[in-house]
Amino acid sequence: MAHNEDNDYEYRIKEGDHVVLKRGDVYKAVQIQRKKKVIFEKQWIFLDNVVGHLYSTTFEIASGGTLQPKENKETESSTDVQVAGTDNRHINDDGKSQKLTRDDIETMKEQGLTDKEIIKQLIDNSSTFNNKTGYAQDKYIKKKKKKYENTVMVLKPTCRILAMMYHGREPGKICHLRYDTLAQMLTLANIHAGSKVLVFETCAGLVLGSIMERMGGYGSVIQMYPGGGPVRAGVECFGFPAHFHDMLHEFPICHVNALLAGTLDASAKDPTPEEKQLSVAAEEEQKQPEAEQQEGSPEEESMETNTGDDVGQDQEKLEKEKRQEAKAQERKVKLEEKRRKLAAAAALLEGRNADGLVIASHFHPCSVLLGLLKFLSPSRPFVVFSQYKETLIECYTKLKEQGGTVNLMLTDTWLRHYQVLPDRTHPLLLMSGGGGYLLSGTTVATDPSKPAGSPQAEEPAPKRQKVKD
Q1: Which of 57, 182, 244, 361 is the most exposed place for a label (fewest CB within 10 A)?
Q2: Given phi > 0 = left and psi -120 to 50 = alpha, else beta, which region is 227?
Q3: 216/15 Cα distance (integer angstroms)
Q4: CA of 315: how far to CAs of 239, 308, 312, 319, in Å?
Q5: Span 167-210, pLDDT tens digits
């Protein structure tokens, strides 16, 4: 028995783990912490009792917001009905068929009635339920279960689950990237363990985390980021072990041209905004004592009369100076760490032997793609995602003109869910309008002696037709 528990340890929920809560089609990523309230679907819950249980366990929300494992009972539905109508043509949806009011339902919830008991009361107090067809009755019960079911499932974070969570709650943060499109990107870019991958994305870290999950902690991932620093909110939701972050490097996209030209100096580069703020703060600290000395000379008589107050002010000044020195030291440490990371990422990029390139951003990808392709080895895949096809058409044209790539494909993805039930299998009425567009291809080595974009010079001259007398 103990041996089985040791085997299941990896699949059990532990304190500090990142998990995903699910109810119906709604997801939320949280971290397991003791005695911490979590709001999910307008309910306060505590996650203390989920520790030690297996992932994908369903819990019932008890009084006080505590979670209890749901018992697997036989599906003897108390809502099974014997009477059903032949059609629904005479049923009017005027809102008067239900005798129970909203206050009555809230009262039943406060009394501790289960979801099945509440649904049974709704059926008994509905004047039109028995006149509905069997299919309509099942649909009604399913809808009420979804509304009044008081359960939560705890899932282990994966790229598919997190992609569905972001797409359902905040699709704008991930550029409306759908999970089936994300799967195609990982396949087209040939993401595997031990490879060196370049990533440029503005999808809250979802694409970066998916690539790290696929690589399993082996290889290296270089994140090219715009702005002052990388955004990795989605990576944190995965809850990767510490050794996964050792493979992750970062490099600012604004230094790519300098690296390609060989003019980038990671040890003594141009001052960043943080360095400028640090130098300005240091200058202000130097000016403050001089100003204090100048102001103090004409007021010596008043200072002698208030010696007690001056001692307190001097202590406050000393404490303030200590805090400023501590902050300055912290900034210096952060800047040194930033320089070290920049140098490590530059060393990886200088070889220009990357195994793959993935771009998914709300920026125009053309200039980024043409710049980062130079870091790839020949015969390596690349993939670009965009919500709009016009930007990818421009990239396609540029790549065709300059050469160095083959097997260029511009595709779009289409996904539709189906309801599969006896005698009523059909596509769902609501579906995603589009999953974006993908541009993929493979790099090849080019001959520098021959100019790109002039294949006409290599083609033989057309044969002349013979003129018959």
Answers
A1: 57
A2: left
A3: 22
A4: 45, 11, 5, 6
A5: 988 899 999 999 999 999 999 999 999 999 999 999 999 999 99
Q: What is the mean pLDDT of residues 59-84?
A: 70
The amino acid at 377? S
Structure tokens at 182: 């994300």
CA nearest neighbour of 198 among 338, 387, 348, 410:
348
Number of Cβ within a 10 Å radius of residue 57: 16
Contact between 196 and 355 under an 8 Å Cβ cutoff? The reply is yes
Q: End-to-end CA distance of the chain, in Å?
A: 99
User: 21: Cβ–Cβ under 8 A, 6 or more apart, which residues?
Assistant: 27, 28, 29, 30, 38, 40, 152, 153, 154, 155
**HSE-up (13 A, CA, CB side) for residue 242:** 0
Residue 120 is given by DSSP the state: H
Q: Give backbone dihedrals phi and psi of 211, rounded to 5 degrees, phi first.
A: -65, -40
Residues 6+ away with beta carbon under 8 Å from 29: 18, 19, 20, 21, 157, 162, 165, 237
Q: Answer positive or negative: Cα dihedral of 51, 54, 56, 59.
A: negative
Gap between the Cα atoms of 153 and 151, Å rounded: 7
Q: What share of the chain is helix, strand, coil (3-state, %, to 5)?
A: 45, 20, 35
Q: How confident is the model at residue 432 (pLDDT cuts 50, 70, 90)?
A: confident
If one counts every other C-beta atom within 10 angstroms of the C-beta of residue 207, the result is 29
Q: What gap in Å lies between CA 48 and CA 63, rounded to an integer?
A: 14
Higher pLDDT, 114 or 337: 337
- Asked whether 194 and 218 are in contact (CB, 8 A), the reply is yes
For residue 184, the model assigns a pLDDT of 95
What pLDDT, on a 0 to 100 scale, did the predictor assign at position 182? Answer: 95
CA 59 to chain centre: 26
> Position 81: which residue type?
V
Of 191, 199, 240, 206, nearest to 345 (Cα)? 199
Residue 302 pLDDT greater than 70, yes or no: no
- pLDDT higher than threshold 50 for residue 155: yes
* Contact (Cβ atoms closer than 8 angstroms) between residue 437 and residue 391: no
Round the average pLDDT of the chain to a whole number and report it. 81
pLDDT in tens, 77-87: 445 556 777 77
How many CB atoms within 10 Å of residue 12?
Answer: 15
Q: Distance (Å, rounded) from C-alpha 271 to C-alpha 90?
A: 77
